[in-house]
Amino acid sequence: MDVWGPFIWNVGLWCREWIPVLAPTGVVFAALVAYKAYRQRLVADKRDQWWTRAQWAIDSALDSRVDVKLTGLKVLTSLKAGSLATPEDVALFNSIARGIQNDIEMGAVAVSEPASPDRRTMSNDKLSSDRDTERAAAAGTFTVRLSALGERTVTVKTLGEKRLLEEAEKLLQTEPAKSAKSAGK
After folding, report:
1. How far does Cα 37 stand from its chain's mean position?
2. Do the Cβ atoms of 168 and 101 come closer than 8 Å?
3. 183, 43 in Cβ contact below 8 A?
4. Phi and psi (nearest 5°) for 144?
5. What is the pLDDT of residue 182?
6. Which pLDDT value is given to residue 177?
7. Which among 145, 138, 185 has a CA at the least distance from the CA of 169?
8. Comparing C-alpha atoms, which of 43, 37, 103, 106 is closest to residue 73?
9. pTM score over 0.90
10. What is the pLDDT of residues 157-171, one digit of tens each?
11. E strands, the chain, where?
């Protein structure tokens, strides 16, 4: 028993001196762990909401109606440009855009025309581009220049096809944000 007596006495002295120092250190450490968990949860919640929007946009981009498909492609373009898109998401969005372009080029999809916009709400620039569109429609064809997957020109028969090709091209050309790889972790 004599052997343990001085040791226990020294441990008691050590505890008396160091516990007031270690206690606040433990509190700071616990606060850091809690903050890290909070930040991870915040990123996970943002990513969850982002994915909900992405699912809606993908469903819309694959819809048969031109106006819904255009809206879906625009939302996909916006989501791709955001910081939460992972490389896998970017590849998925690009394959959707390529699929839409290929379907239109091969004539595998029938595109009906959306309702024409109200001319009273358009600017002069929009009206002049509409006049060009009307001339092309009178000729029966629209020419679209695509460059994201190699330079090529595609001739389509409807304005809806033209708009879809242009929006899919925009999606393919949109660069993802630099911090995309950290969002997936």
Report:
1. 24
2. yes
3. yes
4. -125, 130
5. 47
6. 82
7. 145
8. 103
9. no
10. 788 888 888 898 889
11. 142-146, 152-156
Is the confidence at residue 105, as pLDDT, over 50?
A: yes
Task: Identify the helix (H) or strand (E) that includes residue 8.
Answer: helix 4-61
The pLDDT of residue 116 is 47
3-class SS of residue 176: coil
Length, in residues, of the chain: 185
- For residue 120, what pLDDT band results from cuts at 50, 70 and 90? very low
Does residue 125 register a pLDDT over 70? Answer: no
**φ/ψ (deg, to 5) at 84:** -95, -5
> Strand, coil or helix: what is 146?
strand
Cα–Cα separations (whole angstroms), residue 51 to 15, 59, 82, 108, 182: 52, 12, 12, 29, 16
* Residue 56 vs residues 75, 87, 178: alpha-carbon distances, Å: 9, 19, 24
Cα 125 versus chain centre, distance: 30
Distance CA 151, CA 134 (A): 26
